[in-house]
Amino acid sequence: MNDLQDFDFVCGLLDKFCADTRVRSVLKKIGSHDLTGWEKWIQVEFAIFLHDHDDVADFCREYEYQLDQRKANRAKAYADFSFRKKGMSKDVKIILEFKANRKLRACIDGMVADWNKIECVRASDDDIRSFWVVGFHGLDGCKPEEILKSVSQMVAEKMSIKLFKNRLKTTAIGKTGFAVTLF
Known about the structure:
With 183 residues, the chain is an alpha+beta fold. It contains 5 helices and 6 strands; from the N terminus they run H-H-H-E-E-E-H-E-H-E-E. The mean pLDDT is 90.
């Protein structure tokens, strides 16, 4: 399995998760009541989803890893999710960081900060096969294609890496008024 296969696997997990009628119903209520602070809720829901998924093994929440203190101002950090696809080497993991914010820019800013945090993992402690940031955000009246263009521009402003189009995806979550972005 390579980076692009990991991306496709994570996309498939997110598509299935976001198709759940209960998740969609709660997201719709979050939007209609203009609620904040729902990131932990979506993480818990996704944790339950991963735990029960037939293709996921060695699932862990709040995965601790050591940071290279030459790059970071602290010794360790935590990733929201660590897991592997069944049949993958047991020595490496897929890492996910979640952000949830109704406002697109705030969500993307948080995703970039998480990406930068993971970039500081100490090389000798690195069992990360691939890592991805996942953002749940409002559509703000935009189509997913328009959001993809905005995300590419926002990330280019804040990061030294260029996102590959085949490793960037935004999908509307039904008629909830929310979308999920992955890079």
